[in-house]
Amino acid sequence: MQGFRFKHFDPSTLNKSKFQQLLDLFLELLTYTSGDFNEAMQWLNQLDQQYQLTNEDYGIGDFLEELKDKGYINDNNPTGEIKITGKTEQGIRQKSLEDIFGKLKKSTKGNHRINKPGMGDEINPETRPFRFGDSIEQIDFTASIRNAQINHGIEDFRFGEDDLEIRETDFKTQTSTVLMIDISHSMILYGEDRITPAKKVAMALSELIHTRYPKDTLDIVVFGNDAWTIEVKDLPYLQVGPYHTNTVAGLELAMDILRKRKNPNRQIFMITDGKPTCLKIGAKYYKNSFGVDLKIFNRCLNLATQCKKLKIPVTTFMIATDPYLQRFVSEFTEANHGKAFFASLDKLGAFIFKDFESGKNKTVY
Question: Which of 329, 208, 322 is closest to 271 using CA atoms?
C-alpha cells in the first residue's frame, strides 16, 4: 500500500500552466548554457526523464511547438538551426530580475532617492504652505480649496496666497553605472561556475534600470587579456575565455565611458574572482599569475586614485575568499575610498542590488 508522498511546496507554480513552468526552467538552463538552445534542450529532456516534468497530455514536443508559436525560438535561417529570439533574451533578463530582486526584503530595497525635495518624478505625500517661486504644477488644489472654504466660508469663496498648499516631488538621482565582469579562465576553474551568477546579476541590473530607472545608464565591460563593451542583448551568450585578468584595461575603459557621460553621479561595479595578472604594454602582454605582481598592482592603485579624483567610486565584489586576495582588495579600496564585498555566489545579487539602491539615499553634492 502506497502512503502519502510529500514534496517541496512552491506557491509560485499554483497558477502557472505547464508551458510556463517549463519555460521558467528552460530560461534558467539557457543562462547556464550561454544561450545554447540545443544544450539547454538536452538538459531539459534529462530533467524530464528524471523528475517527470511532463505527462501524456503535454510533452516536450508540445512545449517546443508552443515556444515557436509564441516567438521564443526561430528556425527560419539558412542553416535551419533553431535559435532563441529577442523575446527569449528579454525573458531571461526578466527572470534574472525576479530571481534576485524577489529574494530581497522590502526594507532593503530603497527607492533610488536622495533626501532632497525638488522637481522630480515622484510625488511626496507631505504638503507645505505656498512660497514665492513655487510653480503652479505643484499646487495641491484639493487641499487649497479646503483651506479657502475654512478661511473664508462658502458664500464668500475666494483664493488667497495663504490658502495655497504645495505638494512637493522627490528629486531622484540619475546615475551612470559601469558594470565590469571578469571573464578570465579562473571564473570556471576549481569546480565552481562563477560566470553564470555574474551574468544573472548583469541581466537583472540592466532590466531593473530599464524598467524602473530609465534615466539611468548602464554600460557593461568585460575584461580578460583586454577589455571591451558588450550590449545587454549579448549577456545570455557571454562565456569565459582562456584569458588572464587585465583589471587595468577594464578600469581604463570604464573610466573612458564615464568621462563621456554628462551625469555627475557615476560609479563602477567590478565583479571578479582574483587578483590582476595581466597588463598590456604597447603591443605586448605582461603576465604573471604567481603572487601579487607589483608592476600590475601599482597600476591598479594609480587608477583607483584617478577614479577618486574624478569622484567615481569603485565597488569591488570579490567572489572568492582566498586570504592572499584580501591585500589587493583592501589597498585598492582604500586608494579609491570605495567599497568592497567578499560575496558568496548565491549572495552576489543581493549584495549588488542593495548597494545600487542604497546609494540613492544620500545627497550628492
Answer: 329
Q: What is the pTM of this model?
A: 0.74
pLDDT in tens, 282-318: 999 999 988 889 999 999 999 999 999 999 999 998 8
**What's the mean pLDDT in 345-349?**
77
Calpha distance 84→301 (Å, rounded): 42
Return the bridge partners of 53, or none: none
Find where cell 540592466 sits.
206
Q: What is the DSSP string of 258-274?
A: HHH---SEEEEEEEESS
Question: Residue 94 above 70 pLDDT?
Answer: yes
Q: Tell me what pLDDT residue 199 has.
A: 92
Residue 172 pairs in a beta bridge with: 113
Highest mean pLDDT among 9-18, 43-52, 132-141: 43-52
The radius of gyration of the chain from alpha carbons, rounded to an integer in Å, stands at: 26
Tell me what pLDDT residue 113 has: 40
Under 8 Å between Cβ of 60 and 66: no
CA atoms within 13 A on the CB side of 70: 13
Answer for the pair 151, 241: CB distance below 8 angstroms, yes or no: no
Q: How far is CA 325 from the centre of its chain?
A: 25
Task: Report in angstroms the alpha-carbon separations of 100 from 21, 83, 87, 162, 348.
Answer: 18, 26, 20, 49, 9
Alpha-carbon distance of 265 to 192, in angstroms, equals 35
Rounded distance, CA 358 to CA 365, Å?
16
Domains of the chain, each with CATH number or no CATH: 15-84 (1.10.10), 118-170 (no CATH), 175-358 (3.40.50.410)
